[in-house]
Amino acid sequence: MDYFLLTGKITSKVELKSTDKKGKKIEYAYFTVLTDSRYKDKRGYYQRIWSWYNDARDLYQKNLKEGDHVRIEGYHSQNKQKETVFNATSVHLVSRPGTAQSENVEVQTNEKSEKNSEDENPLESEELTY
User: Is 9 exposed, middle or buried, given 0-12, 13-18 or 19+ CB atoms closer than 10 A?
Assistant: First the structure.
């Protein structure tokens, strides 16, 4: 597994889903981040960040908002289209626009939590739009 550490600005709503497109029960959260140049690919500097199961619920409950500047740690995987998928294991709020002071919001994941396999990845059947 390739691990990553990136910083960026959240550019979408943090979404929480409980089923995939086929109706299979699977909890996941995702959002889009405008990243620095190290992570540029065919989508430009925008990357979709995923979180799974209990970690997804924890992430969603932290109330991260569009415009928040975050630091994200996690690991890369690939989907069937050989695209890089960013899986978050820790998300830290660095700063929030309109606040005088940075907040320290952390989502620390449980190493033993279930991980989504390539076959179950909702990315496979979902067209990404930014």
Answer: middle
Q: What is the pTM of this model?
A: 0.67
What is the distance, to the nearest Å, from the Cα of residue 32 to the centroid of all Cα atoms in its chain? 7
Exposed / middle / buried, residue 86 (Cβ in 10 Å: 0-12, 13-18, 19+): buried
3-state secondary structure 52-78: EHHHHHHHHHCCCCCCCEEEEEEEEEE
What is the distance between the alpha carbons of residues 34 and 112, in angstroms, rounded to a whole number? Answer: 29
2-108 domain in CATH 2.40.50.140?
A: yes
- In tens, the pLDDT along 14-27 reads 999 888 888 888 88
The conformational region for residue 89 under phi > 0 = left, psi -120 to 50 = alpha, else beta, is alpha
